[in-house]
Write a sequence for this structure.
């Protein structure tokens, strides 16, 4: 058995990072077209890396490509929203229980540090990034490699879910998210699994109900 030569993909990865950030900060809203020619010109690269980047983002679930429409930023459907919410709930139950049972003091400190970073967030999109970073810290603290991989597989879609939620309303958003995450971190520090699970469920429910109400 032989294998072909490896291809360097550094440029396409960099292009994917740039496009992903443009999606997550609202420059490309759900449904927006991602045109290879325009992106290549803006990024001063050939169309090849742009095409590879769009394919990678399609695998992540933040871009959809259809032969008659080309590539667009994923516009979440009611089914998408429900599936993401239910899968996230299932993963978080295991993550919270693992953190309560196994997390080190240092890992809990990193979760609390992620909450502290929320004080610096001055815009809703910055707060969404902090929200995702908090959950990154929770899954890392769980000490379960495959659980972490499962979270990373839907991480970008959850980020898109939260960005889409901002399009419904941002009234009181910064304060609400800070307060909710302080409570989540405190419950984990106390080792109160059932209390933490209830708070995590309520935290998810706020975003889900707001977004679901728009369909």
């Amino acid at each position: 058995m032989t294998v072909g030569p490896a291809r360097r993909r550094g440029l396409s990865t960099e292009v994917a990072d740039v496009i992903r950030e443009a999606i997550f900060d609202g420059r490309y809203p759900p449904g927006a077209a991602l045109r290879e020619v325009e992106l290549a010109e803006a990024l001063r690269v050939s169309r090849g890396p742009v095409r590879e980047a769009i394919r990678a983002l399609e695998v992540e679930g933040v871009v959809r490509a259809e032969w008659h429409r080309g590539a667009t930023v994923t516009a979440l459907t009611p089914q998408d929203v429900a599936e993401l919410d239910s899968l996230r709930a299932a993963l978080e139950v295991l993550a919270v229980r693992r953190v309560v049972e196994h997390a080190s003091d240092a890992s809990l400190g990193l979760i609390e540090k992620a909450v502290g970073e929320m004080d610096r967030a001055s815009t809703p999109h910055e707060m969404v990034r902090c929200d995702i970073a908090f959950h990154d810290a929770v899954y890392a603290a769980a000490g379960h490699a495959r659980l972490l991989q499962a979270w990373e597989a839907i991480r970008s879609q959850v980020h898109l879910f939260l960005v889409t939620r901002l399009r419904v309303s941002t009234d009181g958003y910064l304060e609400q998210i800070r307060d909710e995450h302080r409570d989540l971190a405190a419950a984990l520090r106390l080792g109160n699994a059932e209390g933490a699970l209830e708070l995590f469920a309520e935290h998810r429910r706020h975003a889900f109900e707001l977004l679901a109400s728009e369909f």
Remarks:
- The chain has a mean pLDDT of 94.
- The beta strands are 33-34, 63-66, 70-73.
- Residues 78-102 form the longest helix (25 residues).
